[in-house]
Amino acid sequence: MEVVIAMGHFCDTHGPCVILCTHVLDEIPKEKPLSKISSCAACESIELDTVFVCEDENKQYITSRTSLDSNLTRLLKDAILRSLSIEMVLQDGKNSGTMYFGDNNRGHIIAHVFSIKDSFARGFKRKYCMIVLGKHQISLLSHYDFVEKHLKRISEDLQQKAEKFNSTDRSSTTSVDKILRSLPELVGERNIFAQLHMWFVFLLRAEIFKNIPHDIPSCPVNCSLIEKLRNIKLEMPNSVYDTISYCILTGIRVEENNLDILKYFQQLLPKGFQLPTVGMVCRISRPKEKWNVNFDGSLPLILPCLHVSIKEALENTNITNSALQYHIMSLIMHWFSISCVLNWTSTHSEVLLRTLEVRKCDTPLLDYWIPQSSECVEICKTDYFKPRIIVDK
């Protein structure tokens, strides 16, 4: 199940219940829908042993009274219950409204709640909802406007039909059979569920629900040990920290003597960066509990912007450790993105560098980062929406 569309009704007798369900399957199932369902004239739809089916070259689009999957039936019932009686969306003076709710366990739901005129009902209206239930939150919410637009169009069509059909005043009859009326009776359309089936199939066939990305790459930055680096920074003289951090960020070899702190500085680099094995060396030592570095080179008067930003964040006591992790990750990602852009371009014009807010002091860092950003270019070329082909060995 990628996406399922269902319709629900708030029955005066049975409460919130599912009256229609449309899903996509590879083939028509052999088992029948669940038969033990309490219903009345108001919440009745198509017969339990009846299904509507549309098919294309790959899929079967099946609409039934209830889902053919018992687990899915439970999820749909829960979603209908929340849409019609727990989550609030209708405002005073409005006949419809759309909302999102859900989680990874019960699914992610876009629900459109609306009312239909019924001259025999309490309050002269009956409450319905249409829900789109999916497994992927990002994919569903990315197309919230599309879903809302079409669900609203369907509900408005039903409301117009009901308004036209129920234009007469409320009758004085008290017959239960007359008061409890199904959706076809409310809108004056015998085949309204067949029309809903076609509407739902249209939505399910939309390419937006087929483009579920696969193998999305992980974040290229990991600063899970940043609290350790902050503590080390507090112990070190500024000159020692500046030297180590500058060498790490600009690709100068750094060696340590049984200190096991290098990994805390290396998290300031994007994952996968190759560490230098030749060239100048910065050696870290701690004789008599005093931090020291031995570096033949010299630091520039103005350090790279990323170096300065990270140092300021580490020293800022108003930033908690949990917030610090993601703040520094965002700083690194910003400069990784700049290096990717410069990797794509053959010439680095002054206009481009000014647009990216790159200064002369950032040149040593970018000279090290740009050649290592080619993997970022390949990631951007990859089609993560392309279906995977699994070959049995």
Q: Your description of this structure?
A:
By secondary structure, this protein is of the alpha+beta class. The protein has 2 domains: 3-209, no CATH class; 226-380, no CATH class. Helices cover 39% and strands 18% of the residues. It is built from 14 helices and 10 strands. A hairpin with a 3-residue loop joins strand 1 and strand 2. It is elongated and about 90 Å long.
- Using only C-alpha atoms, the radius of gyration works out to 31 Å
- What would the average pLDDT be, to the nearest integer? 84
Strand order of the largest sheet: 3-4-2-1-7-6-5
Unreliable residue runs: 169-174, 383-393
Distance between the termini: 27 Å
Fraction of helical residues: 25-40%
Number of domains: 2
Quaternary structure annotation: single chain
Residue fraction in strands: 15-25%
Q: How would you sum up the global shape?
A: elongated
| Largest β sheet strand count, sense and barrel closure | 7 strands, antiparallel
Number of helices: 14
Which class of secondary structure composition applies to the elements? alpha+beta
Total beta-strand segments: 10
Short description:
One of its GO terms (molecular function) is GTPase activator activity. This protein is of the alpha+beta class and 393 residues long.
Task: Describe how the helices and strands are arranged.
Layout: E1 3-11, E2 15-25, E3 51-55, E4 60-64, H1 70-86, E5 96-103, E6 107-117, E7 125-134, H2 137-142, H3 144-165, H4 176-179, H5 183-187, H6 192-205, H7 226-235, H8 238-250, E8 253-256, H9 262-266, E9 281-285, E10 292-295, H10 305-315, H11 321-344, H12 350-355, H13 363-369, H14 374-381
Parallel strand pairs: 8-9
Antiparallel strand pairs: 1-2, 1-7, 2-4, 3-4, 5-6, 6-7, 9-10
Helix pairs in contact: 10-11
